[in-house]
């Protein structure tokens, strides 16, 4: 910004929706912890409670951190694009690591208890979400973070990257909802229909997951809230593209 110019501001309503998303995200993490601590005995790795690390890690990684990674380009609108890209990739990478811990926890817990793996719809959807999320992250780093991909190639891949980013976020929330239902039917199938406190708390967690997903997706789909290129970014892109491809740049920001 020029000297004496007012500081840049966020579009009307964006900050409020982002704040609501963070409040919902922190609440769903607290609700997950309360459910596992109050009714499932807590979380411990080398014990029969190892399984409980699975829902905690998946909600933290595949929902909360993934959602925040998607919001990076809306929140950090006036920072350097390169820094925003790095933060976007780091949050997604951290989500993947935490989710991997959750997957290891459930497989080891099943093995120790003699339970079969990968037979339920929840496990199929969850594993598909994780594998595709990993592929999405690798492709995103390859196309956008590391040098090498041309502007035309990036422009062609970018719509798919954005579409599948939102789609995998929705699939992750859907997998969590299936997991909550499956866990309730396994643990309290006899009393679930009687509105017992554990069932109500777990259902509340499910509604918080849906609410978090809706708010994040709403922010992501508002055209006027998309990050616009800074003046210096436009100049740099034009110079680089002219040197490498002999064309003027086209296409917006994420």
UniProtKB/TrEMBL annotation:
GO terms for cellular component: chromaffin granule membrane; lysosomal membrane. It is a multi-pass membrane protein. It catalyses: monodehydro-L-ascorbate radical(out) + L-ascorbate(in) = monodehydro-L-ascorbate radical(in) + L-ascorbate(out). The lineage of its organism: Eukaryota, Metazoa, Chordata, Craniata, Vertebrata. This is Transmembrane ascorbate-dependent reductase CYB561. Residues 20-221 form the Cytochrome b561 domain. GO terms for molecular function: metal ion binding; oxidoreductase activity. The chain crosses the membrane at residues 12-36, 56-76, 88-107, 127-149, 161-180, 200-220. It is found in: Cytoplasmic vesicle, Secretory vesicle, Chromaffin granule membrane. It comes from the Eukaryota.
């Amino acid at each position: 910004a020029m000297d004496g110019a007012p500081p840049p501001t966020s579009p009307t309503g964006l900050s409020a929706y982002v704040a609501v998303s963070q409040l919902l995200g922190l609440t769903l993490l607290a609700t997950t912890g309360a459910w596992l601590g109050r009714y499932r005995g807590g979380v411990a790795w080398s014990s029969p409670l190892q399984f409980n690390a699975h829902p905690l890690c998946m909600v933290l990684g595949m929902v909360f951190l993934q959602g925040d990674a998607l919001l990076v380009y809306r929140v950090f609108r006036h920072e350097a694009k390169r820094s925003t890209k790095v933060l976007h990739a780091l949050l997604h990478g951290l989500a993947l690591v935490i989710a991997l811990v959750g997957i290891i926890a459930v497989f080891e817990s099943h093995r120790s208890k003699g339970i079969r793996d990968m037979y339920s719809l929840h496990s199929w959807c969850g594993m598909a979400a994780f594998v595709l999320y990993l592929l999405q992250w690798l492709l995103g780093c390859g196309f956008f973070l590391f040098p090498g991909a041309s502007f035309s190639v990036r422009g062609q891949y970018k719509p798919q990257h954005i579409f599948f980013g939102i789609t995998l976020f929705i699939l992750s929330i859907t997998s969590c909802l299936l997991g909550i239902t499956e866990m309730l039917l396994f643990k309290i199938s006899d009393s679930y229909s009687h509105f017992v406190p554990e069932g109500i708390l777990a259902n509340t967690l499910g509604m918080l997951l849906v609410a978090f997903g809706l708010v994040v997706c709403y922010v992501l789909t508002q055209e006027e809230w998309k990050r616009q290129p800074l003046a210096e970014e436009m100049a740099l892109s034009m110079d680089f593209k002219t040197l490498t491809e002999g064309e003027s740049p086209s296409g917006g920001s994420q």
